[in-house]
Structures are given as C-alpha cells and as structure tokens.
Amino acid sequence: MEKIYSFEFEGDDLYGGTRDGKLIHINILTGKTKMISLATTFPGIRNIYYTGILKDKICFGGTPYLIRANRDLSEVNFISLTDAEGRQHTDILCGHILEDKNELWLGTITGGVFVFTVSDSLIFKKQLYKNTNTENAMTSNGVLDMMRSRDKMYLCMEAGINIIDVNTNRIISIQKKNGLPDD
C-alpha cells in the first residue's frame, strides 16, 4: 500500500503524490490508474505534494524539486529547489497556484517560500522569500500552510503569520508581540 502524501480532484481526475516519490493519476469515471516512480530517475525524491494545474500542466512539489507533468503523466519535467547560497531544500510542505499571475508558490519547512513564474514551455524562479532578519522579511523560514485572498498571500509560519502583497512583495508580520495570541 502506497503512503499518500497529498491528492486533489481536477474534474473527473484525481492526482496525488506519495511519500516515497510516486505520482498518481486516477480517472474516477473509468477507474484507469497510472502511477510512475520518480525515485528511480531522481534518487532521494520523496513527499510529492500536489499543487494544481497551471498552463495545462499538473504541478507538484517533490522534495527537493518542482515537478510539472502532462495530465496523463506521459512527460515529466523537474527544477531543483535551491536558494541563493546553492542549498537544496528538501522539505516542501505546501503549495499554491496564482493562475492570474502564472505563478506557483511552494512553502518549505526550512527554506522559506519559492515562487516560480511559468510560461508555456519555461519555468524560472522569480522570488525566494525567507527570514533575513531585516524589516521586510518573513518571521521564520518554516511555512506550514498558505492561502490567497485577493492580492495577499497568507502564510502560516512556525513563528506567527506573514502576509505578502503579491503585487508589491511587501511583507506584514503578525506575531504575539503585535496581537497574535501565540507564535
């Protein structure tokens, strides 16, 4: 039995990922199932987190990669999650797609938030939000969950809540010291 890490429905299809590096596609009308192991091609890949569809490709965060695939999983592409110092982050916990901006946001437990801009055939890293101990920085690098409301991305952090304006990149931090019951 596979240990499912995350899954979501997209119409009549269920897409998911496993803790041991497999992508899963199940059509719920026909019962047809496809599972491919990415760990054979990329040793160490695990914790596949489904994030959604962007530019007609299925997007997953897979420790330590951003993964895009055709809807039938026949073609799979990878981008390594590395920060400015060249450290690879292996701890994706959450993700969110901003379709209107063609962006994919991935939250990690120790590396902050990676933001990717996606065109029809190219993916490039646009931004990395992390704790830099400066005024416009996140409260920590541990992102537990994220959601969007209008032009704001709300991040549940290991140390409070961060709100990022997706247009200006300004970060507002809410912690115990300014009204949150606890960090």
Major sheet size, sense and barrel closure: 4 strands, antiparallel
> Could you give the distance between the termini?
37 Å
Q: Tell me what portion of residues adopts beta-strand conformation.
A: over 45%
> How would you spell out the order of helices and strands?
EEEEEEEEEEEEEEEE
Mean pLDDT: 81
> Count of helical segments?
0
Order of strands, widest sheet: 1-2-3-4
Outline, from the CA principal axes?
A: globular
The residue ranges in which pLDDT falls below 50 over 5 or more consecutive positions are: none
CA-based gyration radius? 17 Å
Class from secondary-structure proportions: mainly beta
Count of β-strands: 16
Helical content band: under 10%
Describe the protein's architecture and organization.
β10 (103-108) and β11 form a beta hairpin. A 4-stranded antiparallel β-sheet has the order 1-2-3-4, with no helix packed on it. It has a 4-stranded antiparallel β-sheet with strand order 5-6-7-8, with no helix packed on it. The relative contact order is 0.11. It is globular. The chain contains no helices and 16 strands. It has 183 residues and is mainly β.
Short précis:
By secondary structure, the protein is mainly beta.
Layout: helices, strands, pairs:
Blueprint: E1 4-10, E2 13-18, E3 22-27, E4 33-37, E5 46-54, E6 57-63, E7 65-69, E8 76-80, E9 92-98, E10 103-108, E11 113-118, E12 123-129, E13 143-149, E14 152-157, E15 160-165, E16 171-174
Antiparallel strand pairs: 1-2, 2-3, 3-4, 5-6, 6-7, 7-8, 9-10, 10-11, 11-12, 13-14, 14-15, 15-16
